[in-house]
Amino acid sequence: MLDWENLRHFLAVARTGTLSGAARDLQVDHATVSRRLAALEAGLQAPLVERLPRSCRLTPLGVSVFEQAKTMEAAAFAIERQTRASHEPVSGKVSLSAPPVLTTHLLAGRLADFRAAYPGIRLSVSAQARAVSLTRREADVALRLVRPSESSSVVRKLGQMPFALYASLDYPALRNPRDWTFIAYDAQFADMPQQRWLLELAGPRPVGCELSDISSHFAAARAGAGVAGLPCFLGDADAGLVRLEHEGAAFSRDIWLVVHRDLRRSAPVRAVMDFLSEVVAGHGAFGSASE
Fold first, then answer.
1. Distance (Å, rounded) from C-alpha 38 to C-alpha 46?
2. Closest Cα to residue 260, out of 138, 89, 128, 124?
3. Looking at residue 53, what DSSP letter applies?
4. Keyword DNA-binding, does the record have it (predicted)?
5. What is the value of pTM for the model shown?
6. In CATH terms, is domain 4-85 a member of 2.60.40.10?
7. Does domain 161-252 have CATH number 3.30.720.210?
8. Phi and psi dihedrals of 289, rounded to 5?
């Protein structure tokens, strides 16, 4: 009988393409991944991975085993989800993945309210820009700014997050739009919708600095570094910023709530979903889900 832990480590190597990447994903050391992979190959009496200087490449057999192992992994996670969903008490740990801007500036300030309402639930919130896999149990519930497409997930639109241009009240060019310089994202986020919107509004005017996340844009705008495109719920709440009039289209991001279909009736998960819906619906800066 194959050791599932060995297969789990092999799956991580196959997905990341390196032993070190697999170690980071599994939160173990490099030697553990190497040992688990070697044990699996020894048990099968066949090589699954070709170890190259900077990467790992699956052998033809490794490709076949990878596909079958993914099916086994999905079945294992399904058993976990179904077992968990059958537990009725509103208690236990629920993991939530949400965009950093919503985690830092919206949800963190409401966690005391959640704790008071559901003292038996340990809510673990991870601020992540990437879309995590609910099928692989990387999170139980997720908030996303792009509509999820996984067939195994249940999706609901909670509202819209409008953006606008903001600058510090002390920004020297505040009253001279032709002299504005802009705070944009760095090259790795070139395809992000708010980056395209901001650069379209900027036109020939220069980008003064590039930062990788909205919280940094917010801090830079407050410090007078230039004009930033910020969510209105964040910019309007700060007395040191002013919303700027501009030509061009308005812009917003949809907020989506997503849960794996096997967990949607779990009492703790249901409580977290209701909490998220209430937070978004109760904030005046977010548009309604029907918009």
1. 10
2. 138
3. S
4. yes
5. 0.69
6. no
7. no
8. -65, -25
